[in-house]
Amino acid sequence: MFEKILIANRGEIAVRVARTARRLGIRTVAVYSEADAGAMHTEVCDEAYLIGGAAARDSYLHGERIIQVARKTGAQAIHPGYGFLSENAAFSRACHEAGIVFVGPPASAIEAMGSKSAAKTLMEQAGVPLVPGYHGDNQDDALLELEADRIGYPVLIKAVAGGGGKGMRIVEQRKAFRESLYGARREAKSSFGDDRVLIEKYLVRPRHIEIQVFADNNGNAVHLFERDCSLQRRHQKVIEEAPAPGIAEARRQEMGKVALKAAQAVGYVGAGTVEFIVDASGHFYFMEMNTRLQVEHPVTEMITGVDLVEWQLCVAGGQSLPLMQPALEHHGHAFEARVYAEDPGNGFLPAAGIISHLHQPRESAHVRIDTGVRAGDQIGINYDPMIAKVIAWDVDRASALRRLRSALAQYQLAGVKNNIAFLLNLTSMTAFEGADAEPSLLDTGLIERHGADLFPEAQPASNTVLALAVLSELLRERERARNLASASTDPYSPWHLSDGWRLNEDNHHTFGFIDDGRRVTVTAHYRAGGFLLVLPGGEMRVRGEGEGDNYIVADIDGGRVTATVVLEADALTVFAFGACHRLERQRLASVEDEEPGGLLVSPLPGSVAQVLVEEGQTVDKGQALMIVEAMKMEHTIAAPHRGRVAQIYYSAGEQVAEGAQLLAMEEET
Ligand code: ADP
Question: In terms of domains, do 255 and 385 share one?
Answer without folding.
Answer: yes
